[in-house]
Amino acid sequence: MKELQQILKKEFIHIFRDKITLFLVLAIPIVLVLLFGFTISTDINHAKIAILDLSNDSQSNELIEKIDASGYFEIVSTPKSETEIDNDFKNKNIKLALIIPPNFEKVLAKEKYITIQIISDVSDLNVASILNNYIKAILHDFTLDYNVGSPMKVPIEISTRMMYNPEANSVYMFVPGIITLIMIIVTALLSSITLSREAETGTMRMLLIAPVKKIYVVIGKVIPYMILSFISTIAIIIISVVVFKMPIEGSFWLLLLLCIIFMLTSASFGMMISSLVKTQLDAMMITMMGLFLPTALLSGFLFPIDNMPYFFQLLANIFPAKWFIIAIKDVMIKGSGIVDIWLYLVILLGMAALLITFSLSRIDKRR
Amino acid sequence: MPAIHIQNLNKSYSHKISALKNVSFDVAEGEVFGVVGPDGAGKSTLFNILTTLILPDSGEISVLHKDIIKDYLEIRKSIGYLPGTFSLYPDLTVEENLIFFATMYKSRIKDNMSLIRPIWQQLLPFKNRYAGKLSGGMKQKLALCCALIHKPSLLFLDEPTTGVDPVSRKEFWEILGSIKQQNITVIVSTPYMDEATLCDRIALFKDGSIVTMDTPQQIIQNFAGTLYTLRTSNIFNLLNIMKHFSCNCTFYPYGENLHIIFYENTSTALPQFENFLKENHQSYDHLTQITPTIEDCFIELTSQKIAL
Description:
Number of strands of chain B: 14
Strand content of chain A: 5-15%
Number of strands of chain A: 4
Strand order of the largest sheet of chain B: 6-7-8-3-9-10
Number of domains of chain B: 2
Oligomer: heterodimer
Helix content of chain B: 25-40%
Distance between the termini of chain A: 28 Å
Number of helices of chain B: 11
Structural class of chain A: mainly alpha
Structural class of chain B: alpha/beta
Helix content of chain A: 55-70%
């Protein structure tokens, strides 16, 4: 055990003497989570729009007022013709234009039916579809108000209740994702770099020739980075709860246990990568390309896994992040207990065991 | 019982490249044994096998009376290894490195201080300096301390003086002499032929096979030819002209000089050679017979093989 202690001590010396890496490891997660929290938001306010009102009667004015009052839109232009709308898209950078047809009030009263045209700037698909939904909701509201007291009723009224995230807050989506990415960067990347550094400097060879148990070497190198990563994770959780009001519905201790297990799996992944390459640079490139990118893309953090082609859905299963993200969302947002997520914990632990066994056999290979 | 026993060792990395071919030799206890040869001769492969890092394809090998395949964990406890390239932690201090490697061998610095004291004394002024900031010679001394700290019975030195300045090289070999006094068997590989004479016995390696193996003195005695050296002002010019000189001989540049080995009777060959030089207007001086060095022996042994 003295050997393990000494290896741990040595690894901490490496970390504390490399101030830049230490600073990056501790500061980047915090910066990232603040950056994501304040900048990436799928909620849009004050989108610029134009309204071409060809009626200019009491009902059309009422509709425009309703749109203006919603807070989602800012009416920056009231063009007089459709060609002017074109110019507004180009010059005033409007995202959406609404055309209210002539005789709005009269037609509405007589026919009970009228068509309103919406023109959208779909160069940004996400923004366009969100704005479309907003405006449709306002128009739906307007129709309901108009029909109040009249004999005609809207046959089906939709009432949505948003479970677990009532305000459709995007913070709920990305915090688990950020925690995942941070843990991959700190544990997988750093442990793969630190192990391949030993290979590169020739010290791994010295350790192999020594009678010290190889599992000590590996554990001793990985634990310090797991501790660093754990500190970062706690910092992220505190920031998300305090600054972004992210709830922790489930048990805090279960959340910590889950994070520790995922760190172990990521560290083993890093170890496996470093056992396959010869240099730090290779280890870094492969971890970024082979683990970090697929994790970001396939874990369900950015794109829903259910929408992917079948092949990628299968591929997503081999990345530990998928299981972790499901589990952490369940614990933080749905308040699931260990009974609900034990399977994910077992999968993550199984992956770690497999990866560690493989790496150890590769490190002391004697071929 | 020899400290190292090797019988018909073979190792190839792929089916085509064979790194070691039918190598057999013994190293006696307490001996300083030199593995000498140019880069690519198979020295490192041999060391990797003997230090239990890789497995041989075939052959019967025992290190310190233990089989390298079955008992490799036992062997690791009692061998020391000093690699040619600096393989300690550059961001750890001199003392931290030594403590670290001592612990890896379940040893403590004070246990074997007597063994490393002469070297450690020289390192003491720098004990709080980062190992990466030491000079080349000091780095190797520290590495030697780390390799000796657990009092190994067998010490492997893999090109320990490559890239080290001549003064430090000489010092290093003096230290090896004192290690031998401690009854530690030393097996050292080197591409420097001049260092080979400092070993008790040497094996000359070329292309994975042993060309010859004996004491340096005996190898020099067995030199099968007559060696002449001559000094010239323009060695490149001379070498070009020499291509047209036909005789049963081998010539090669040796520093500033040209060495020429005659395999036939020099009473006829030497005048022929002098004539040839005159015809080609080559000025020279000091055409004298000399005693060969190990390097001359190596060239004689390997070039003869080509001639045959």
